[in-house]
Amino acid sequence: MALSTGDILPEFVAVQDNGRPYEPTPGRWRVLFFFPKTVTTHCQLQARQYQARLAGFEDLNVDVVGINGDPRQDQLHFRSTCKLGYPLVNDGDQEISRAFDLLDNPWPGEAVGRPKRETFLVDPRGVIRRHWTGVDPAQDAQVVLEAVQDIQQGETELLLA
Assembly state and interactors (predicted)? Predict the structure, then answer.
């Protein structure tokens, strides 16, 4: 079943491209952006856009995490090429993509499916606050950053009212 805004994020166990387990930082928001393939220009553009705005996300207490099913060696090359300072989670077994209902059909010439390009904004309690489908890789990071700012500003205003 597809996840949507208001759902609790499913728990998942994953390994980062550096070989260490991925563990969310307690008390922080998370952006989980799924992308299909490390060697495509669209995926590199999306990853670089997140890197360019990483300080803005960090200022808002938000961790950025990219999720992809390519082999670890490909993810390491992707990290180096895009000069990324945030975690890439390996979903080679496709368990995370399945849990999020994002597994797409195999690409031509490939035997396994790839995750759809979708993005989730998750609050510190694990609630999905936004879910973007049909993501534009050139605009995704900016759209998500603006959504975080709007949500957090709205919550602050409610606390002060």
Answer: Monomer.
> Which CATH number applies to 27-136?
3.40.30.10
All structural domains of the chain with their residue ranges: 27-136
pLDDT digits (tens, 9 = 90+) for 124-142: 999 999 999 999 999 999 9
The stretches in the chain having pLDDT less than 70 are: 1, 156-161
- Decide: 138 and 132 in contact? Cβ < 8 Å: no
Q: CA-CA distance, 94 to 125, in Å (whole number)?
A: 25
Look up residue 119 and give its two tokens: 């993005």
- Percent of the chain scored above 70 by pLDDT? 96
Q: Give the integer Cα–Cα distance in Å for 99 and 91.
A: 11
The beta strands (E) that lie in the chain are given as 15-16, 29-34, 62-68, 88-90, 103-106, 113-115, 119-122, 128-132
Q: How far apart are CA 161 and CA 157, in angstroms?
A: 6
Interhelix angle 41-52/140-160, rounded to 10 degrees, is 40
Task: State whether residue 34 is helix, strand or coil.
Answer: strand
Q: Name the residue among 99, 120, 97, 96 with its Cα closest to residue 30.
A: 120
State the Cα–Cα distance between residues 88 and 67, nearest whole angstrom. Answer: 6
